[in-house]
């Protein structure tokens, strides 16, 4: 039956949360991508989950903002002077 | 030197690295002439991620810094033979990995290669958060994600929230920690991460997804505790 097949082809919330990275990486097939987006458009909770997921990724990138300890940088410069000398 | 075997394998250079081959060559010329500012530029670009990588391996901060120092010595020695077939940072990654295991074997925890294949089983969010088969809509949310109501004090950008993310990443199983650190913290491309770790695109994505799901969950707990306390 068409209805039954349609239902099976629908993405449920539990499946959606497993494929978010695949979606973000462009690794879903066009059909799955459409199912993902359709579900998201009609499900506030999954939309919230995906938004939190995105923000988690974004914030993880802020951990990058770190400098080398000065003492270590100084030792590396010493090593460089030794290397060329 | 043992570094000849660390020379990048042949093949097209992966995307995602800002250093084009000619840029690397130009820098190499400056470095050979003893240009300290060229060296410091290289150190400020690659030093911080090398230290974070070394910290993920080393059992102490002192060892992490030693690994970085020894790795830089090796980078300087090896630059002449760097052929630009992999990205510069993928190449440096292989040097740090080699130095860690060759010179600091007893003072590191390495990521067993098998972890990249075994840490991918199971759901990334526990089944108990969803309706089971007896529900009219199985697989829909039972325990939905609570909204993150952020006051300025509990915003994602605060030091505390950042610490939560950092410690969530530290607590991850080693392969997941490695992948999320390189992808989301360092901002490497999927291709570079696959090349550096020697894993498939599919495994990389599964590990990354599990890691991200775990870190998001820790933030959910963090915001939940903030809201109720
Ligand atoms: Zn949903």
Explained architecture:
The complex is a heterodimer of chains A (85) and B (229). In chain A, 72% of the residues lie in helices and 0% in strands. Chain A has 85 residues and is an all-alpha fold. Chain A has one domain: Arc Repressor Mutant, subunit A. The longest helix of chain A is centred in the middle third of the chain and has 17 residues. The N terminus of chain A is likely disordered. With 229 residues, chain B is mainly alpha-helical. Chain B has two domains: 94 residues, RNA polymerase sigma factor, region 2, helix turn helix motif (Rna Polymerase Sigma Factor, Chain: A, Orthogonal Bundle), CATH 1.10.1740; 116 residues, Orthogonal Bundle (Arc Repressor Mutant, subunit A). Chain B has nine helices and no strands. The N terminus of chain B is likely disordered. The site of zinc ion (ZN) has 6 residues of chain A, from helix 2 and helix 5.
Keywords, please?
heterodimer, A: 85 residues, mainly alpha, Arc Repressor Mutant, subunit A, elongated, disordered N terminus, B: 229 residues, Rna Polymerase Sigma Factor, Chain: A, 2 domains, 58% helix, binds zinc ion
How is the topology of this model organized?
The complex is a heterodimer of chains A (85) and B (229).
Chain A: H1 2-8, H2 13-16, H3 20-24, H4 30-42, H5 44-60, H6 70-84
Chain B: H1 21-32, H2 36-57, H3 61-78, H4 88-103, H5 115-118, H6 159-170, H7 174-185, H8 190-197, H9 201-228
Helix pairs in contact in B: 2-3, 2-4, 3-4, 4-8, 6-9, 7-9
The structure holds zinc ion (ZN).
């Amino acid at each position: 039956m068409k209805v039954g097949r349609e239902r099976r082809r629908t993405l449920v919330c539990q499946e959606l949360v497993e494929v978010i990275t695949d979606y973000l990486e462009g690794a879903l097939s066009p059909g799955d991508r459409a199912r993902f987006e359709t579900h998201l458009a009609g499900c506030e909770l999954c939309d919230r989950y995906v938004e939190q997921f995105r923000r988690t990724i974004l914030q993880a990138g802020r951990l990058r903002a770190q400098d080398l300890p000065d003492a270590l940088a100084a030792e590396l410069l010493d090593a460089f002077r030794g290397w060329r000398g | 030197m043992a570094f000849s075997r660390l020379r990048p394998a042949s093949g097209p250079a992966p995307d995602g690295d800002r250093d084009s081959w000619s840029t690397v060559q130009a820098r190499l010329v400056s470095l050979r002439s003893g240009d300290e500012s060229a060296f410091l530029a290289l150190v400020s670009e690659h030093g911080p991620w090398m230290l974070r990588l070394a910290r993920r391996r080393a059992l102490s901060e002192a060892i992490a810094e030693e690994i970085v120092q020894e790795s830089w010595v090796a980078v300087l020695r090896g630059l002449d033979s760097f052929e630009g077939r992999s990205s510069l940072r993928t190449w440096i990654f292989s040097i740090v990995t080699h130095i860690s295991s060759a010179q600091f074997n007893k003072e590191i925890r390495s990521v067993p290669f098998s972890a990249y294949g075994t840490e991918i089983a199971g759901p990334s969010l526990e089944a108990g958060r969803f309706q089971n088969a007896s529900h009219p809509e199985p697989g829909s949310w039972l325990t939905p994600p609570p909204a993150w109501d952020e006051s300025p004090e509990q915003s994602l950008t605060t030091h505390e929230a950042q610490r939560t993310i950092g410690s969530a990443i530290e607590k991850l199983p080693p392969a997941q920690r490695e992948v999320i650190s390189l992808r989301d913290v360092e901002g490497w491309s999927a291709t570079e991460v696959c090349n550096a770790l020697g894993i498939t695109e599919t495994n990389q994505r599964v590990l990354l997804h599990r890691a991200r799901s775990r870190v998001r969950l820790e933030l959910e707990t963090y915001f939940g505790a903030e809201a109720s306390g």
